[in-house]
From TrEMBL:
Keywords for the protein's UniProt record, in alphabetical order: Antiport, Cell membrane, Membrane, Transmembrane, Transmembrane helix, Transport
Domain of life: Bacteria
Subcellular locations according to the entry: Cell membrane
Membrane topology classification: Multi-pass membrane protein
UniProt main location, coarse: membrane
Family: Belongs to the NhaC Na(+)/H(+) (TC 2.A.35) antiporter family.
Protein name: Na+/H+ antiporter NhaC
Gene Ontology terms for molecular function: antiporter activity
Pfam families attached to this UniProt entry: Na_H_antiporter
Organism: Algoriphagus machipongonensis
GO-annotated cellular components: plasma membrane
Keyword Hydrolase: no
Domain Na+/H+ antiporter NhaC-like C-terminal: 166-472
Amino acid sequence: MEGITRAPKVSDALIPLIFLIVLLVLNIRVFGTDGLSGSNQIVLILSATVAALVAIFRLGFNWETLQDGIVKSISSAMSSILILFLIGALAGTWMLSGVVPAMIYYGLQVLNPTIFLVAACFVSAVVSVATGSSWTTVATVGVALLGIGKALGFDEGIIAGSIISGAYFGDKMSPLSDTTNLAPAMAGTDLFTHIRHMAKTTVPSIIIALLMFIVIGFNYETNGSVNDVKAISEVILEKFNVSGWLFLVPIIVLTMIIKQVPAIPALLAGALLGGVFALIFQPEIISTIAAEDASYAYQSFKAVMMSMYGEISIVTSNDVVNELLITGGMAGMLNTIWLIVCAMVFGGIMEESGMLRVLAEAIIRKVHRVGSLIASTAATCMFFNITTSDQYLAILVPGRMYADVYRKRGLKPENLSRTLEDSATVTSVLVPWNTCGATQASVLGVATLTYAPYCFFNIISPIMTILFGYLKIGINYYEKEEELA
């Protein structure tokens, strides 16, 4: 059978996809938001098994070829996996050192419930534009903002939604963002033309999202009170040595990223700096975590190592504060990494066998007008986010597929690059088994399906780009359309 393969039909490709969707729906009904603990992973492995059976027995592929596709797919996610491990370590040392508690403390002094949601979205957007990374933004200021919001009495889902909305706006618009560079490269345009064109849909989307957060903020009945906020602040002061000097750690990390230091060394530096600052500012916390009567050097080594690799919890007299002062370290990321690997297995088989391509091509054949072309592009990107579980593949594959179609229709490449970002980049975080959705759920400790309804910017963006396509607003054409028709 080796070497004798046939191109898949749409019916072949639909078999594993329908199996995946049916099993995920059943899984969500049974396990709800606990799916990340293992059941989602099993669903993806079973779906990958079905895809492999179709590829081998119906299409003529051999296992070695499919395995190469799996390895290639998992390899593409390795940088994300390493970043996840380092985010876990960073979260641990920043908790131990008092960086996150200090952010929460000072945030409680300046933010009130009325403006909190819009402020959280705005702050996340500014930091993300400066760093070019939604992941870094969520893992640093996002974690602190979540703690502040919970202390103010907001539901964790809506807090996470406001943080993620802002973070993904910045991720889209920053020239430092990898996806913002990848999309124009796939479409065939330059970076700043892409950003200027993307602003036509992105700015209205974020304005609508901010207005929604303002309205919710003015009408939201929080279960927190001024006395609760005061009590939380006092407990943090009692437990930690809160100082403005602690902000040097996030400032250094953000500066490194703005200076285009790669994410992995920047996050590693941030984790190590957190450990150093813990030794300087939090000797009592170090002693408590180490839980041994030994020299301070011994206690320091043990406590810092524990915070980087495993779960630590700092117990206070306040139950709300106790919930804020728990971190899982690198080990806390293992469920997410497990999910990513399983998703990459499914995506690798579907990609290698050509089943993803044939599904996308079936959509293209139905496209005849500008509006439907843009809508189809957006739908294809979201489809790849669901099936390949990776936002980069959701940009790369549709970008390659549609580039020639846009050119032949007389549309400049920035139309394609904008649509790729408006749909692929922002919706990746709404899919529980996508690398982005799984990561943000793990970092924030909020299930994807819990925060997804409140990610207003991420929901509005693809709708906005489709609406602009049908109304032909902000569409750039070649000057001589007739030559390309």
